[in-house]
């Protein structure tokens, strides 16, 4: 059985990966919008 600390770390890593996957397209879209409106 893995230690709770390791489990928490894995959970955070998974959450961070998902957050980055969501953030990248959002940042790209905002960047394009700023370039177009500039």
List keywords for this structure.
1 helix; 38 residues; rod-shaped; mainly alpha
3D architecture notes:
89% of the residues lie in helices and 0% in strands. It is rod-shaped, with a radius of gyration of 16 Å. It contains one helix and no strands. It is mainly alpha-helical and 38 residues long.
Summarize the entry for a quick read.
With 38 residues, the chain is mostly helical. It has one helix at 4-37. It is rod-shaped and about 50 Å long.
Write the layout of secondary structure elements.
Blueprint: H1 4-37
Count of helical stretches:
1
How does the major sheet shape up? none
Given the helix and strand composition, which structural class is it? mainly alpha
Terminal Cα separation, in Å?
55 Å
- Uncertain runs: none
- What gyration radius follows from the Cα positions, in whole Å? 16 Å
